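Hi R.,

Here's the chain you asked about this morning:
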Amino acid sequence: MEHLAHLSTFVSLIYGLGVANVLAHLASLIKRGKRADWYWVHTLWSAFLLLAMASFWWLLQNWARVPHISYLTYLSMLLIPSLLFMLSDLLFPDRGEGAVNLKAHFFAIKRPLFLLLSALVAADTLDSVLKGWQHMRELGPLYWSAQVFFFLGCLVCARSGSERVQGAFAVVTFGLYLVGISNALASV
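And here is the predicted structure, written out as tokens:
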């Protein structure tokens, strides 16, 4: 466990920077007042990112069950927080004083946003595989079904300009994530 504490320090730093980034962007938007045109889909993805960062950070302790963590495994542990940090910066327009339309920004960055989110699914799958067969079985069919749904949904949303598709995927993903993470946290 002491070994994991040492390795997780750098990983935790990246998660902390990601959380701080989202909160700083949200505070900047709040300061803009009426010059910030909020968009509910963007807001839902912002909440998802905060929840994902907190959840993955919490689930870092699952690595305590792994008897040996190699350097390459450690590098793979950096994938999820690094992707979440990039997502936390991409999701928001540059901080400033001017007016901002979050709907226009969301649709302008949707392709790289959803490609990064699909990479997050792949990184999470790699993380699960590296923890061993027993861990993969413990995750159960809901986890694996959600992974497939989320990956395919990200690919669809990367291409879709439909507000209905974007909104429906955001709502369903957020709901599934809440159910999935409550199951995962119960097993820790």
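One quick note: The first strand starts at residue 36 and ends at 37.

Cheers,
M.
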